[in-house]
Amino acid sequence: MSYEIDVVSKISEIYNHLSDAEQKVATVILDDLVFAANASITEIASKAEVSEATITRFAKSVNCKNVRSLKLKLAQSVAVGQRFISESKVEPSGIFGIYESIKKNLDDNAKLMSEDLINTIVDRFQEARQVFAYGVGGGSTIMAQETQYRLFRLGFSVTAYSDPVLMRMASSTVNQNDVIFCLSLSGCSPDVCEAAQIAQQYGATIVSITQKGSPLAQNSDFLIPIETEETDYIFSPSTSRYAMLAAIDVLVTELAVKRKRTSREKLRRIKLTLDHHFHGNDRLPLGD
Q: What number is the average pLDDT over the span 41-57?
């Protein structure tokens, strides 16, 4: 499948190769995409102080059939959100502001959990023959791996998958004794949703951490809900991933406590092995 570069990127790419008049048009468009997408050819020409014929030539220079096609592509670019186009005046106040954003996100999401829900999910995990953790993309891939790294310490048979084909293959091997643990901040990943649907057809239990009402949530047997709080300041990584990590920690901690004797013995062995390896003190984090 071919992918056509978006018109904003195309304009930026060829800007220095445009004529002086066309550069005026490009500047007007890049400075205010919303205006350019909604204005008439006359209005754009007036603001750029060029002729309407220049607007037509500019459209063809950026691989658009005509001005109408240009305006349609501009409208599509605007649809991603104004915060990705215009300068944002909303900025966190330095290091402290970033920490405060993370804390607020954690506080807000903590209110969404219930002990009854977690206890029910814990019981299902304890009964599971195996657990598959699914997550794709930059954040959820790491969270799926984190789930594996937390649960194997407690004696669970768990495997993390982020490759879409492998997720489908793994889902095809499950039965009613297995748990599929799906992780998605948006809940809209088609790869995770489809892998969950396949596993569900074969009887596996689907447990998800995602947004309520999302496609993934609708395909889950149990949902640990999270809310994403994306601001207009796009340069700071999403704080929502901390909410997902906290939810994983809650689940893993409750699992460890439920099978305390087994958990303690597994963790003791790991601690003993790592102490011999690192030669560190007794309070080093378990696993570095």
A: 94
